[in-house]
Amino acid sequence: MSLSPAPLSSARLDRFARHIVLPEVGGAGQVKLAHSHVAIIGLGGIGSPALQYLAASGIGRLSLIDDDVVDVSNLQRQTIFTTRDVGYGKAVSARRWLANFDDSLVVDVSDARITPDNAESLIRGADLVLDGTDNFATRLAVADACVAAGIPLLSAAVGRFQGQVAAFAGHLPEQACYRCFVGDAFDAEDCDTCADDGMLGAMAGWAGSFAALQAVKVLLAGTAMLGDPGWGRLHILDGLAPGMRTIRIAKDASCTACAGA
């Protein structure tokens, strides 16, 4: 049986005081965050900083899903890990970081590799899925499972000096899903990785922290005044300019994942 998130005790109120005094969040928004459940898929360059800021924001329950182990080359950008974690599973190491940071949070851990067969069971019960994985096969399996389960998806990617962050609600009428964006041609694991192309560590931090900001906005929609979740808007972060631009992704009427929604 899963434990309920910790209530907002006086200590929790003190911890999140800087949130609560924001009119756009307030007490109601902080309570909503405390009773929210986010599944984070991939605890690498994006998942690490995203996890840190989501935990710091008071998300009551976090599901950590990653089948990889920590490598010394990860430490340049995956900010929750230390030299002591090298050789250990990322999901277990991330849970250890969370236990040291805030032991009031409820944490689920899985080191299973996500496939179309198990994706829906791994994200079941989440209010939001944040995907920071690095291959299209996993991303599409997660995206399709989100549509099937009616769970919003926050998709984030980064490489070299560019990041991309978008919120999808393909289970809703007129809203695009991730497959509307990339199509059906990428259900394989032969995409480029940062091992091939390189990545500025701080760029991963920007993409991950921006993804956390968008996640909070999605979770507080309808409860607080933080703004529209921005379904189907792809934010492109340029670390060299620097700057950001946003494009709109339309729902694909022939999409194999969400056309019937």
Structure description:
- The chain is built from 10 helices and 8 strands.
- The two termini are 32 Å apart.
- Helix 4 packs across helix 10.
- The protein is of the alpha/beta class and 261 residues long.
List the helices and strands and how they pair.
Elements: H1 10-15, H2 17-20, H3 26-34, E1 37-41, H4 47-57, E2 61-65, H5 90-101, E3 106-110, H6 119-123, E4 128-131, H7 136-149, E5 153-159, E6 162-168, H8 178-182, H9 194-197, H10 201-220, E7 233-238, E8 243-248
Parallel strand pairs: 1-2, 1-4, 2-3, 4-5
Antiparallel strand pairs: 5-6, 6-7, 7-8
Helix pairs in contact: 4-10
The sequence of SSEs as H and E is: HHHEHEHEHEHEEHHHEE
Radius of gyration: 17 Å
Helical fraction? 25-40%
Task: Catalogue the unreliable spans.
Answer: none
Shape: globular
Mean pLDDT: 92
Strand content: 15-25%
Instruction: Count the beta strands.
Output: 8
The total count of helices amounts to 10
N- to C-terminal separation?
Answer: 32 Å
Largest sheet: 8 strands, mixed
Q: How do the strands of the widest beta sheet line up side by side?
A: 3-2-1-4-5-6-7-8
Judged by helices, strands and strand pairing, the structural class is alpha/beta
Quick gist of this model?
The chain has 261 residues and is α/β, with parallel strands linked by helices. It has helices spanning 10-15, 17-20, 26-34, 47-57, 90-101, 119-123, 136-149, 178-182, 194-197, 201-220; strands at 37-41, 61-65, 106-110, 128-131, 153-159, 162-168, 233-238, 243-248.
Which short descriptors sum up this protein?
261 residues; alpha/beta; 8 strands; 10 helices; 34% helix
